[in-house]
Backbone:
């Protein structure tokens, strides 16, 4: 079947990456000036009329030989030995994040590989959109770039495997305009052993393990997965967690079972969970002394019309500060009691949505938005069980809401050496 | 200085593009909507004009469950069985 892709000029790099990953780099892409959405239909039909001749030619004329697919320079390459020049070179290759990086020399990568029992040529995952082969060696090379230590490597490998799980929908996470990036949550004894921070300023700077593990995953997704900012990664804004986004659950300060135990692992097992997450948004509540009142505050931060979770579903994450968690668990509330109440209270009247959005959401989530009775509401997740709750952070009367991309599920993997 | 390639290789396998028909005379054109706002407006207008200009037999539209989710195998098979050429959409 002869096929032509229509898109906007802004999305050309992504369209090119997609057709290359399909092994068809010569597949014609015909573009109109950006955007298509959010403009009157008459403006769209005018754009359509301007490209008909090009589409007709693309459908009926031979596009010529396709270039070779695949790529990659091979297992090793030459790079500038001077450390400052190396930074410039790395950015020119599209492999940096803007911060200084450590050259992944063969010696350093070999040392990094000593942190795992897995073979260097073992393929942990194939990463989209580029279909990059995330060999353990390539993962180690990016771990070196990020400043990680050999003992961090098993966590990073497990995070890569989790992100490649189909449930995570990495293709969308990598290429969407939405501001999301994999948040890495660590559970179990490995957090303490590696110094993965779970206390005060948990989502901030200052903890080396958190910084380098999150950064390594990000660089792997960019470099192996081929999601370069402004090219295949189409984020309108992105968010600061795209440099690094990693935390441990503060299990010692939690009144409830940890996330890993909820998901069927034992307390002695170490796990990594990845979520397709936005930046954290603060939940300030200095006064509440009952679970119901904490719920009121948490749910009101969730209940917003501009959230992906409200129409795409997914799993908004509440990172409860230990003091809020203690209040929420008083009166004998379980974690399920808490999330059921939060979900129940996270309702937004459909009357609060713009009519054009109701029309759009009705095609995506008809049960929630199509032909609903007066007074109907939308909630921050499709089901109360989709509200994720972990306990982390230090002293203080704050929690954080971390919404997700929506069309993604968090994935938890056991960390193995 | 030798470094290990941080991009690794790609598993994408080169494939051959389908042969193009010499004209659209008598063919069915498939439209695969990516479900982004106004994508259907663009695709339908291009399809309509192509049919008029190229003498296509018909224009038929298919959809995806969401813009961030791929088309189902069933839909792709239907398109392959029903149409000779296809237009798909990417972008906002």
Residues:
């Amino acid at each position: 079947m002869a096929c032509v892709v229509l898109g906007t000029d802004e999305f050309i790099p992504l369209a090119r990456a997609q057709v290359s990953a399909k092994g068809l780099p010569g597949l014609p892409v015909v573009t109109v000036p950006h955007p298509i959405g959010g403009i009157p239909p008459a403006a769209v039909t005018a754009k359509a009329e301007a490209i008909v001749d090009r589409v007709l030619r693309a459908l009926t004329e031979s596009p010529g030989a396709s270039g070779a697919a695949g790529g990659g320079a091979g297992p090793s390459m030459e790079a500038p030995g001077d450390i400052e020049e190396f930074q410039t070179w790395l950015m020119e290759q599209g492999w940096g994040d803007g911060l200084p990086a450590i050259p992944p020399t063969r010696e350093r990568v070999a040392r990094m590989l000593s942190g795992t029992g897995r073979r260097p040529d073992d393929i942990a995952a194939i990463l989209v959109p580029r279909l990059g082969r995330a060999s353990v060696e390539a993962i180690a090379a990016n771990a070196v770039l990020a400043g990680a230590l050999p003992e961090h490597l098993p966590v990073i490998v497990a995070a890569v495997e989790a992100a490649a799980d189909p449930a995570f929908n990495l293709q969308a996470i990598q290429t969407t305009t939405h501001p999301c990036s994999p948040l890495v949550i660590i559970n179990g004894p490995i957090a303490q052993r590696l110094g993965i921070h779970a206390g005060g300023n948990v989502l901030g700077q200052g903890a080396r393990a958190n910084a380098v593990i999150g950064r390594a995953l990000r660089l792997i997704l960019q470099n192996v997965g081929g999601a370069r900012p402004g090219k295949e990664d189409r984020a309108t804004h992105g968010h600061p967690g795209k440099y690094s986004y990693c935390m441990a659950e503060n299990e010692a300060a939690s009144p409830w079972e940890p996330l890993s135990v909820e998901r069927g692992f034992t307390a002695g097992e170490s796990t990594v969970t990845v979520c397709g997450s936005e930046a954290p948004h603060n939940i300030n509540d200095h006064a509440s002394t009952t679970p119901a009142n904490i719920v009121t505050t948490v749910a009101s931060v969730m209940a917003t019309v501009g959230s992906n979770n409200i129409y795409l579903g997914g799993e908004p994450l509440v990172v409860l500060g230990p003091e809020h968690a203690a209040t929420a668990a008083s009166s004998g509330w379980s974690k399920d009691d808490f999330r059921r109440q939060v979900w129940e209270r996270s309702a937004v009247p459909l009357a609060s949505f713009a009519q054009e959005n109701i029309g759009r959401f009705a095609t995506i989530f008809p049960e929630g938005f199509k032909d609903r009775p007066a007074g109907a509401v939308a909630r921050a997740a499709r089901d109360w069980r989709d509200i994720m709750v972990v306990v982390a952070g230090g002293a203080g009367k704050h929690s954080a809401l971390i919404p997700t991309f929506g069309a993604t599920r968090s994935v938890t993997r056991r960390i193995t050496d | 200085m030798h470094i290990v390639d941080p991009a690794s290789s790609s598993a994408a396998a080169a494939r051959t593009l389908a042969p193009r028909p010499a004209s659209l005379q008598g063919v069915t054109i498939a439209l695969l909507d990516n479900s982004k706002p106004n994508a259907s407006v663009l695709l339908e207008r291009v399809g309509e004009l192509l049919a008029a200009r190229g003498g296509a037999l018909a224009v038929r539209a298919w959809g995806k469950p969401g813009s961030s989710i791929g088309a189902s195998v069933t839909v792709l098979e239907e398109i392959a069985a029903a149409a000779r050429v296809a237009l798909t959409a990417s972008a906002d």
Observations:
- Chain B touches chain A through 55 residues (CB under 8 Å).
- The longest strand of chain B covers residues 28-33.
- The two ends of chain B are 43 Å apart (CA to CA).
- Chain B has two helices and four strands.
